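Box S2. Input/output pair 1.
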Amino acid sequence: MATTTAKSATRATESKNAAAAAASVATSKSATASRIIVAGIPKPSEKPEAKPAEKPQSAASANTVQAAAPAAQPRELTAEEKAAQLQKEIERKTAALQAALTELAHKKELNDHRTRFLKTLDQLQAAEAQLNETDDFEAPKCKISFETKPDGYRWDTAFSIGNAELQKEFITFIRAKIRAKVEDIEAELIK
């Protein structure tokens, strides 16, 4: 009879513990999974986890561990800080694009000058071919004119050169200068 009374008392205590445990259910999330712990009572299929024994630490090593903990977790940026960072990045990229556009405009201008020089070289070659056709002192089809704009309104011829030999020398001189300039422009375009 004493055994029956002991069993009933144990069952009553277990049912009270189970009722109290059911009333105070807490959820605990870990990094790998979540589980429900009922008032600290493990399920019968589970074995209680063994906790590693803590070693006593000196005051200096405890401070080191505490100081290292905040550095391990990066601080989240506020919306204003994120916006400021994005604004700085936009300004940096805008400045880089502006510099690239300026360089591109400069190279386009250089290419326009190169195109004009090459067109002038073609014109000089055509003029030289016409000068080579004549043996006259004065070239009948070519003349080099120097003009001025004294009144700021219209061009007036200051003087002109009609001699074929002087014109050929002028074309040779100018062609060499133009070719040198074209080479300088091409070198700058490549870099």
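Box S3. Input/output pair 2.
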Amino acid sequence: MSALNRILFIDQKPAKDSIGTLLQRRWPTFELLDVMNLDMIRAALGQAELWDLILCDAASFESFGVAELLRGVREHLNASVVLLQRGEPRVDIAQVYRLGVADVVDWADEEHLLAVCERELANALMRKEIRELRCSATQGHLGPNQALVVATIQDMSPGARQRQVEGHAPHHATVDARGGEVRDGAVDQRTYIRELIDAGGLTLEYQPIISLRANEEHRRMFETLVRLKDRTGRLLAPSEFLPVVSAAGWMNKVDLWILRRALATLKEMQQAGSEEIILFINVAAETLRSEKTAKAMAAFVSASGVAPGSVVIELRQAVFQDSVETLQTFARVLRERGHGILVEDLAVDDLDFLTRQTDLISHIKLGRDITQGLVERRISQESVNTLVKCAQEEGMRVIALAVDNAELLPMLFAAGVDAIQGHFVSMPYQTLMYPSIQRVESSSTPAWQDARGSS
């Protein structure tokens, strides 16, 4: 944080000394404005572009109607809003997130608060740079000698998430560096993603899944994660490109590419002496709607030569309802080789679904809604215990996703969960989104040419 960082602090019962002292523990210089009534808040937000971070007491956020005040200045705001809560009652995190709040932090958790401040100040800086670049492009100030300053800019303003929550599509702008022309639309975004894939940008990473069971033979497990490398070398998360891939009808090609590459990596590891490794591979619901694609996937698995029981295919519940015949075809090949199927979007009350699918499902995953619900006390320990017990009585293994803090571990252990994955067991770092045993870059052959036999 530099002297240019300006922090707005909203609290009807001001504690400027305490927040200022806390921030000075890490950063020697900053500007902090303490506002404690509605008129001061309106005046401060009247200069919304000045602020790099807005810290707001949770009670003041509600009593002053800060969410409504922010709505009118979202398009001018670079700063994230972080709520600070004291004791009870607890903030409804899902509700304030829908109102555009970036994070909620306990006053007493000082290290967490400092880390969140540092992260959101960096986000504000990025928004400023993107806003300036858009302005330059609109005014035609981008240099003619620049080959391509920006291929695609996604709307990263604080209002973007709010517009998505309210049902509006995210805004995408393509910037032509030569003419400064800004063009909107899905066609430009589709072309951009296609070009990245054609350039060999698809990349696989492998996130560890850690066993919680000490009384069984340990098998190393990893989930296959797909990323797309942009022109700057940055890795795009699935949410940044898979919706475009799906809308364009390319998902089956990409899924086949992922499956082939993941199986090849698994085979290499097993040949190197790691016979016990299990690889989890996601397959989209639309991919299994095609009988031809399902047969191609089954053929890839059959011809892969990987060890029996070393592949688990991750599916969503919709596949079990919408693609019954193709799923049965694919599942038969998996069973013959001892491989498994995991369902990943369960709710705690999906017990009937589990008992109806015992011949297909070998694993279930407790998703982020469940794990975060446990921590936030929105989901009861008893309901999770019941779900885990039901699955294990049917011979299924249970993996918990999004294990990001120590508070969750005893809850999962008490429920009898078999394994966990998430940032708590593999912290992200700069060069990889997740630590991985191996990263596999795509070849120069695009996914749609590499995935033979699909439709």
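Caption for Box S3: Residues 86 and 108 are 8 Å apart (CA to CA). The two ends are 52 Å apart (CA to CA).
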